[in-house]
Amino acid sequence: MPTITCVDDFRTLARRRIPRFAFDYLDGGAGHEIGLRRNVEAFDALKLMPRMLVNVDKIDVSTTFFGRKWSMPFATAPIGAGGIMWPGGEEAIARAAVEAGIPYTNATPACISLERVKEVAGDNAWFQLYVGRAEPMVQDLVNRAEAAGYDVMFVTVDVPVPPRRLRDLRNRFTMPFAWSPSVIWQLVQRPQWSLGTLMNGIPRFANMERYAPIKGVQPMARYMSSQVTGKFDWDSLKKLRDRWKGKIVPKGLMSVEDCLRAKEIGCDGIVVSNHGGRQLGSLPSSIEVLPAIRAAVGKDFPLIIDSGIRSGEHIVKAIASGADFCLLGRAVVYSVAALGKPGPKVALEMLKAEMEQVLGQIGYPTIAELKTKPPVMD
Ligand SMILES: Cc1cc2nc3c(=O)[nH]c(=O)nc-3n(C[C@H](O)[C@H](O)[C@H](O)COP(=O)(O)O)c2cc1C
Fold first, then answer.
1. Cα(71)–Cα(351) distance, rounded to whole angstroms?
2. Distance 114 CA to ligand 1 centre (A)
3. Which residues partner with 64 through β-bridges?
4. Residue pLDDT, tens place only, 166-190
5. 3-state secondary structure of 7
6. For the chain, does the N or the C end have fewer beta carbons within 10 angstroms?
7. pLDDT by residue (tens digit) across 5-20?
8. Domains in the chain, start-ordered, CATH in brackets?
């Protein structure tokens, strides 16, 4: 196995192991990708003031969130079309999350069904809902999530219009992917991925394909993009709030006003997120808006953050800046694209070791202490 020292090593390897259209879909962002870069740079720019002469012989990165103890303060983020990163890769991530003691989030447009995720991940399974244009589909997805026994449901609110991702446009990327000469050439260059994908079955939208009126690759791709809707508004979110008995958490809020309103209508928490820089380059980074949001919603309201987290050091900075919990998107998915099914376990162990090293170095032996006297400096 090649030596992996950080998330970037996974990324480098992933680029060599999976077809370009898949890597670009994972790695890319909106427009010229300034937001994507800004997300990571904003985390890098934060500094941590150390406390010395603190007994850090025992370091504990576990935390309690949504009434449960987790071994680390993060979940894996919902990833649409995750099945194209590695055959069976989504299930491998879910299994690694359970083994590591953290939540796994199933995305509405995932290639693994919400029912299967629940079988694999049990109480570690969270669900992410996209509210599509077709009302019966949304109702059915919510009913299915309820029947499967999900408690935590993210409702993604930051995709009112489709994004412009230049890499995907240049690659003419569609999901399910279409068999063009360029795609076939990319598959020939990545035989292990291609063979595995053939054996495992071409990735499909496991939660959603049943709702498409016409089957087939192109109709399915058209159906998926036709479901993006700008109609979803505060009234719709409130109705969902009243309908869903479990925890409902809007994902993709960035302004203090929006977060206060979500709290007011009874949401159980918020994911402060710019969708990993995938929707619009000019949005602020989520880590820079987080402190003001924390100040506004109060110290006890559950806040999750994502977008740009690439290390245990970044996770520590997120918690020290006011988050209770994090979501990791690319940082975990690169690992499955780089090493196949064993990748996520390696990534989660590495992130834990990174967090422990940072906490030890700055003299904060527990996650709780990070919150009481935050070490973050601008
Ligand atoms: C390939 C990919 C697919 C994604 N699909 C979804 C999705 O289906 N639903 C969703 O709410 N967010 C989706 N996201 C956004 C992630 O849940 C998360 O907000 C983002 O990846 C966080 O940024 P990071 O990748 O820098 O950690 C996706 C992100 C990536 C990279």
1. 12
2. 17
3. 69
4. 999 999 998 888 889 999 999 999 9
5. helix
6. C
7. 999 999 999 999 999 9
8. 7-377 (3.20.20.70)
